[in-house]
Amino acid sequence: MPEQIFQNEFEKKTVFSDRNLIMPHHTPDELPFRDEQISDVSNVVAHALKDKRPENIFIYGKVGAGKTCVTKHVMNKLNEFASSNNVCAECCYVNCRTHNSKYRILSKIVKDFYPEENFLGFSAAFIYEKLLSHAGRGNHVIIILDEIDKVRDLDELVYGLIRGNDEIDKGSLSIIGISNNVRFKERLDPRTKSSLCQQEMVFAPYNAIELTEILKQRVEKAFKPNTVSDSAINLAAAYSAKESGDARTAIMLLLKAGELADKSEKSFVTDEEVRKARKAVEEEIIFSLVNTLPEQQKFVLYAIAKLSLENNPYKTITGRIEEGVLFSGEVYREYEKVAKHFKESAVSARWYREYISELEIYGLIVTTNSGKGIKGQTRLIKLASEPAKIKELIESEFLKQ
DNA sequence: CCTCCACAGGAAGCGCAGGAGT
DNA sequence: ACTCCTGCGCTTCCTGTGGAGG
Prior knowledge:
Layout: H1 2-11, H2 35-45, E1 57-61, H3 67-84, E2 89-95, H4 102-113, H5 124-136, E3 140-146, H6 154-167, E4 172-179, H7 190-196, E5 199-203, H8 208-222, H9 230-243, H10 247-263, H11 271-291, H12 295-310, E6 315-317, E7 320-322, E8 326-327, H13 328-341, H14 349-361, E9 365-369, E10 379-383, H15 387-400
Parallel strand pairs: 1-4, 1-5, 2-3, 3-4
Antiparallel strand pairs: 6-7, 8-10, 9-10
Helix pairs in contact: 2-3, 4-5, 6-7, 8-9, 8-10, 9-10, 9-11, 10-11, 12-13, 12-15
This protein binds a DNA duplex through residues 101, 152, 294, 327-329, 347-351, 353-354, 357, 369-379.
């Protein structure tokens, strides 16, 4: 039986030549339209090769604008160059989503330098000293903090690392911070801010033309020749450019489209696959979004979906007629019923409004302020996607438990 | 014009979990 | 091991707002 499955899988036709090259985490050798940024980062980092401390860099840009790719690319090149020329400069990459405190970051860095030793359970001070003595031997250490906004005690971390430079005669410590959150910089301690932002760089999102070129390059490497039509690539680029200019989702879109082609045993990826892939990706996002919602918020969303289905007689708003539009108060009362049904107590009306605002930020619902024709001031709520699907999704979630 | 309605959203404060300091 | 502190989710209370209706 397994032999049969293996044999089938082995013989299965595929449009991919090397699927790994189109996975989201893969760092490509070439980064189109980022030459300027690469040389900017390299110029700063290059000081380390001349036994000088590179300035700290703060890189800001939206998701999928190539921030991580560019820094990782420069990091790899620098590490290569340093080791082949016997220079004591090294980069160390930390993703702060998983290492989100000073202690975790420091242990991760030290562990990278001494892979054979185990630092679990050692005090923060010990690990800090270990890092300092490593740098103090003449090493120029550049620490890349990706998603730096996720660090809980960033002020202390930055302060500690900067101050560390005063305590060592040789070598140095520098930071490259990467973030996609604009407002995060504002909450920083002014001293942290000024030392972290010695050099500031902004990565603009890609436009449709650039995305097309990026996708073409990836397709050439990851797909078999002539399996992806030009218009499919253009479509994927156009979708992503319109929404965010995000290269990562554009690439994901093509990966998904390729998978769909394989599944239906087609040997080409066309517009149709890209369109289907987009729908699938959207649904996946909604699915995971809804799944991670707190229970009470699921009740609220469920109440909205339920009412949207029931209230089919269209609600009239002066001048226009819309389907599935609900009043805030009406939803709250329904939500109370839903919560009661599941034997949970409902949150207060005030907090329910916070839930509504949050659901809107997530893009699960759309709200507008009531205008003329409606008593008082209230919000009109509408589900952003199909009510039946949302209702079904949440119902299946609760049946599982 | 005033009052009422049906909410929006700010401010203060409460209870709790979990991390830091001792 | 213990306190202390802090952030988080939430409630309570309150003021503000814009249209309906008298």
